[in-house]
Design goal:
Chain A: This is Glutamyl-tRNA(Gln) amidotransferase subunit A. The complex is a heterotrimer of chains A (about 500), B (about 100) and C (about 475). Chain A has 15 helices and 11 strands. By secondary structure, chain A is of the alpha/beta class. Chain C is an alpha+beta fold. The chains are: A alpha/beta (about 500), B mainly alpha (about 100), C alpha+beta (about 475). Chains in contact: A-B, A-C, B-C.
Chain lengths: ~500, ~100, ~475
């Protein structure tokens, strides 16, 4: 028999239905996997007792026929989602000891659907990063290694704990959040599927905010089907979030028809950037060929402002963050560092509580909003954002989906890219434009590079057309037949 | 536009983050790198383009006026680093 | 110009603009479902949103939008069909989010104008710059501990309307009249209870002085003044301070000052010294507030007759003086009480009685017009008894006292006590004749020219009739008999 931890959500669902194993057995297998994968540092908090307790209840619901869509599925919860009574840190020192008195809508939706919490996943501090090297709780290690090279690689970020754990089979799936690529980029770095739905599809209530106009939760799973199942459980209108879309949640799994005949796949020419590594270009061309073979129509499209997405993002996201993070002041929760007066208490607390990258972004954000610079930076960025949205709108006239590389490179070593924050920012070059436009985007593992590391492709769709995105991703997945596994498996 | 030490100190104070004097210079360098990258935006013609604050294309929902929340001071104060008599406490503020 | 202030070096003109913060009468807060009622224990009316817990999000309260639009309409302002909530970023102990959600570039209500009533009976137009919705902050309590301030977030997130005037006022009286009128309008339409003692209405007063005809001087902002009397005192003090400062060769600094109502002076607020750079930007947790014009029309339909219109109507329909009309319309309840009385009795008489008798008694008893023991119908009945000569005005006051004590009907009291006026000329004539016969000395004096004695004769008649004789008839009879 296959190891329980090797099953996908869909397979485990079948196994539970057929009473091949119980939810408690599945959870116990994962609790052991969580323990054995500790070298990856993917968890900030492990919650085995909670997991066992939830699994027992799952078994009871399975027995009485009231099982939900995620019944008994042991998942990891990115530690950006507030979980009632369980330490929630956003990987920041500043949230020391914070145990929320509330449950985020997304985590609640998942528990209501029967999911089981294995623990809280490591991430970049406040989700700011692309390598999971800014966490107060230490770096996360990618379970993949280059062939013949023992260097630890990064799992991508910010949802690096989630991606590493899903890839290493220490959780069956995990939640992620994506502000500029934080689901898709780590998914690509670890050979898993990461789906950022349309902005407004998943509630932001109870998710520690980074950049409110961009933050969006989504599933990180082993395959596309699991992504569809899990998104169905997460999504839905939330009256507590003013930006949540009041749009019905379709049966995403039903969208996986395996048929893309006649679907128009746009290839944005501006994504073919100068200095793009040959291997990335190769996998992209391969993806184009696969979809064409499956009957899709390939069309070249232009997204002329692509180049400006990243600089616009690095104004908008830090600006919002500088304001969103003002609440961490040592008064109502988390860390407090005393000072001679209130102002010094604030300054000491925030100096001690925030890491270097968070400080940089808060300072940039403060600067671009400050008197005299607002128009030149913030308003300009919003105007460029308008242009980028228009680019996509025009593209949808001639195509139904866009196919692009997910990242400009495969995973890299922790020390190889971090000297310069700017170089790190470039990791998100292919994911940020869709974030600014609020579009659904999925990263699907497509192949290995010459060193044996996974590379991903990205499919983007129209707002609230997750179904077409999933349909395309499913076919891409079938065509790629990606079944490589990382060196480290729990 | 380029940041000097003094501006960094001013921004840091606005953001209430203590930055030691010796860190101001290197920080100014890092921030200027980022700002230099951002300046590319000036190449984009945005004349007559409205700034976009949100991609959400719907009207804001308004809730009914009803008391549905609050009444749980213990939960509000549960994570307080320092509380007394049902209040949060902070170093004395002189008005 | 009437409002110039004499300094040692010449005349000064005072320029005043006000920002009034009026708490919206809503059950729940602007962006959370926590209660707004006054007087709860510390942090009892605080939701996780108000305490700015991580990941908490704002959702706007419909009633607050409704009241903002109604207030805008009541002040004759333009309503902006699209407005935007922005974050005003600053750190303060009672500001949990580290920003206040307010409206900056696009407020829900634009320009308008209201009429203020001055004590000399004149009126004046004061421009309204804008009205926007915003969150109130919490409260810091400084007197509980020698080294700590205590933070109560009950007010955090309560909906405020900030109503910004143009700098159109020129004296403390005008500033006071402006707040009085604003309060009256807000209470009329039910958008704010106007309770200044409980903090439902507070004013920030911007004051500067200049030589007549010169450009505006540097202004000081007096924060959070919570009574009309204090506004007067604060303006008077601040004007003197600024004039003396300039005349002594100093300069007014643009700053925020606090009015100390105990010492009656203003002083600089140290805690607000930090340079202001609020870094406003549209709140990404909210969408633009879009209002349909049909909704604006619907809100127009919900407005009651406003004080100015009512005042004009009282003057034209009831023939009241501007002053009396102004007094009667200042509160909606008073105006409707008066109208109910006037429906039953002579409107002018009604105005006199409501303003002097009723107000006097209510004041003494510490009661509000809404819990007056004398109903407007009863007061109307009483006044019609005067008009139809059933009782005299003097007797009426006696009856009114009784009504106020017992709540009884005027007619019943008159019946029970036999207070009906004697208008029967024959009966009065008999009494007059008797008095003339029994007072030969006084008659003699009267006839020899001391006609002032008529009052004494009237007094005698009234004494015998216990005040019930119709004074007109008595006078007429006495005169004809004494002179005849």
């Amino acid at each position: 028999m296959t190891k329980l931890t090797d099953l996908t959500i869909a397979q485990a669902r079948d196994g539970l239905r057929a009473k091949e194993f119980s939810a408690v057995e599945l959870t116990d297998a994962y609790i052991a996997a969580v323990e054995s994968s500790r070298p990856l540092n993917a968890f900030i908090t492990e919650t085995p007792e909670i997991a066992r307790d939830m699994a027992k209840k799952s078994d009871a619901r399975i027995a009485d026929g009231s099982a939900g869509a995620m019944e008994g599925m042991p998942i990891g919860m990115k530690d950006l989602f507030c979980t009632e009574g369980t330490l929630t840190t956003a990987a920041s020192h500043i949230l020391d000891g914070f145990k929320p008195q509330y449950e985020s809508t997304i985590s609640k939706n998942l528990w209501d659907a029967g999911a089981v919490m294995l623990g809280k996943m490591n991430l970049d501090e406040f989700a700011m990063g692309s390598a999971n090297i800014t966490s107060y709780y230490g770096n996360v290690v990618n379970p993949w290694k280059r062939e013949g090279d023992d260097t630890d690689l990064v799992p991508g970020g910010s949802s690096g704990g989630s991606s590493a754990a899903v890839a290493a089979h220490s959780v069956i799936a995990a939640t992620g959040t994506d502000t500029g690529g934080s689901i898709r980029q780590p998914a690509a770095f670890t050979g898993i599927v990461g789906f950022k739905p349309t902005y407004g599809r998943c509630s932001r209530w109870g998710v520690v905010a980074f950049a409110s106009s961009l933050d969006q939760a989504g599933p990180m799973t082993r395959d596309v089907r699991d992504s569809a199942i899990m998104l169905g459980a997460m999504a839905g209108h939330d009256p507590k979030d003013s930006t949540s879309a009041d749009i019905a949640v379709p049966d995403f799994e039903a969208a996986l028809t395996g048929d893309v005949k006649g679907l128009r796949i746009g290839i944005p020419k501006e994504y073919r950037m100068d200095g793009m590594p040959a291997e990335i270009e190769k996998i992209w061309d391969q993806g184009i060929a696969w979809l064409k073979d499956a009957g899709a129509e390939i069309v070249e499209v232009s997204l002329p402002h692509t180049k400006y997405a990243l600089p616009a993002y690095y104004i908008i996201a830090p600006a919002e963050a500088s304001s969103n993070l003002a609440r961490y002041d040592g008064v109502r929760y988390g860390l407090r560092e005393e000072g001679k007066d209130l102002i010094e208490m604030y300054e000491n607390t925030r100096a001690a509580g925030f890491g270097a990258e968070v400080k940089r972004r808060v300072l940039i954000g403060t600067y671009v909003l400050s008197a005299g610079y607002y128009d030149a930076y913030y308003l300009k960025a919003q105007r460029v954002r308008s242009r980028i949205v228009d680019d996509f709108k025009k593209a949808w006239n001639s195509c139904d989906l866009l196919l692009t590389p997910a990242t400009p490179s495969a995973a890299f070593g922790a020390g190889e890219n971090q000297d310069d924050p700017l170089a790190m920012y470039l990791n998100d070059v292919f994911t940020v434009p869709a974030s600014l436009a609020g579009l659904p985007g999925i990263a699907v593992p497509a192949g290995l590079d010459s060193k044996g590391l996974p590379l991903g492709l990205q499919l983007l769709g129209r707002p609230f057309d997750e179904e077409t995105v999933l349909r395309g991703a499913h076919v891409l997945e079938q065509q790629a037949g990606f079944n490589a596994k990382p060196q480290f498996l729990a | 536009m380029s940041l000097d030490k003094k501006t960094v100190a001013r921004i840091a104070h606005l953001a209430r983050i203590k930055v030691p004097e010796e860190d101001l210079e290197p920080l100014a360098g890092e921030l200027n790198n980022i700002l230099g990258f951002i300046e590319q935006l000036n190449e984009v013609d945005t004349d007559g383009v409205d700034p976009l604050a949100s991609v959400v294309e719907m009207n804001m929902r308004q809730r009914e006026d009803a008391v549905t929340d609050g009444g749980y001071p213990d939960r509000v104060l549960a994570n307080g680093p320092e509380t007394a008599m049902g209040f949060y406490t902070v170093p004395k503020v002189v008005e | 110009m009437a409002n110039l202030i004499k300094g040692n070096t010449g005349d000064w003109e005072v320029v005043i603009g006000l920002e009034v913060h009026a708490q919206v009468s809503s059950k729940a807060k602007l962006f959370s479902g926590a209660a707004t009622a006054f007087g709860a224990g510390p942090n009892e009316q605080v939701s996780l949103v108000d305490a700015a817990m991580p990941g908490m999000l704002p959702v706007i309260n419909k009633e607050c939008v409704r009241q903002a639009v109604r207030t805008g309409l009541a002040m004759g302002c333009a309503i902006n069909l699209k407005s935007v909530f922005a974050r005003k970023n600053y750190f303060y102990a009672d500001l949990p989010q580290g920003y206040q959600i307010s409206q900056y570039e696009l407020p829900v209500v634009g320009e308008g104008e209201i009429t203020i009533d001055l004590e000399d009976g004149e009126s004046k137009q004061v421009g309204i710059e804008r009205l926007h919705l915003e969150q109130d902050a919490g409260k810091s309590i400084h007197d509980q501990d020698p080294t700590k301030s205590y933070i109560d977030l009950n007010r955090s997130g309560v909906a405020l309307m900030e109503i910004v005037s143009k700098p159109d006022m020129r004296s403390a009286d005008e500033a006071a009249a402006y707040v009085t009128k604003l309060r009256s309008i807000l209470r009329y339409i039910g958008a704010c209870d106007g309770n200044m003692a409980e903090g439902s209405m507070r004013a920030d007063v911007n004051i500067s002085v200049r030589r007549p005809g010169e450009p505006l001087g540097t202004r000081a902002e007096l924060k959070n003044i919570n009574s009309i009397r204090f506004i007067r005192q604060a303006v008077d003090y601040e004007v003197k301070r600024q004039i003396m400062l300039i005349e002594d060769g100093g300069e007014v600094v643009q700053e925020t000052r606090l009015f100390d109502s105990i010492k009656g002076e203003t002083r600089s607020m140290r805690s607000k010294e930090d340079a202001h750079d609020y870094r406003y930007f549209p709140d990404p947790d909210l969408l633009p507030l879009v209002i349909e014009s049909a909704f604006v029309e619907e809100m127009k339909g919900t407005l009651p007759e406003l004080p100015d219109t009512k005042k004009d109507r009282f003057i034209s329909d009831f023939g009241l003086s501007a002053y009396d009309a102004g007094v009667l319309v200042s509160e909606r309840e008073t105006a409707s009480y008066y109208e109910a009385v006037a429906a039953k009795a002579d409107p002018k008489l009604a105005a006199n009685w409501v303003i002097s008798e009723l107000f006097g008694r209510l004041n003494k008893a510490g009661k509000d017009i809404t819990d007056s023991p004398v109903s407007p119908e009863n007061l109307g009945n009483l006044l019609s008894l005067i008009s139809d000569n059933t009782i005299s005005g003097k007797i009426a006051k006696e009856v009114f006292n009784e009504m106020f004590e017992t709540g009884k009907d005027a007619k019943d009291i008159v019946e029970e006590k036999g207070l009906k006026q004697i208008t029967d000329t024959g009966a009065i004539e008999a009494i007059v004749d008797g008095i003339i016969a029994n007072s030969p000395g006084q008659v003699e004096q009267y006839r020899s020219g001391k006609t002032g004695l008529i009052g004494w004769f009237v007094g005698q008649v009234m004494k015998e009739t216990q005040g019930k004789a119709n004074p007109g008839v008595v006078n007429q009879l006495l005169k004809s008999k004494l002179e005849g």
